[in-house]
């Protein structure tokens, strides 16, 4: 299943935004180096063509395109990140609640 926001992830239901963000950060830290590398390469493959297209624009429209890119970046990359961390979320959640006690 694809999740566009952390609010929709079943393991994180009922938690505040700050708690969800911290757990996601811990889950990303628990990824292996190859997983982190693949995740970052996928994000880079998404951004590179867009910025190459934007490099050719020489008018004020560039600001509009940059704004649209800024809005769409998390919409595209968050589901990919959530897909990669799905296996480490439970451990990260347990670790988070151990740390705050």
Q: What key phrases describe this protein's structure?
A:
mainly alpha; 71% helix; elongated; 101 residues; 4 helices
Provide an overview of this structure.
The protein has 101 residues and is an all-alpha fold. The protein is built from four helices and no strands. Helix 1 packs across helix 4 and helix 2 packs antiparallel against helix 3. It is elongated and about 55 Å long.
Total beta strand runs = 0
Low-confidence stretches: none
Count of discrete alpha- or pi-helical segments spanning 4 or more residues: 4
What string, H for helix and E for strand, traces the elements in order?
HHHH
SSE blueprint and pairings:
Layout: H1 17-29, H2 33-54, H3 61-85, H4 89-100
Short description:
The chain is mostly helical.
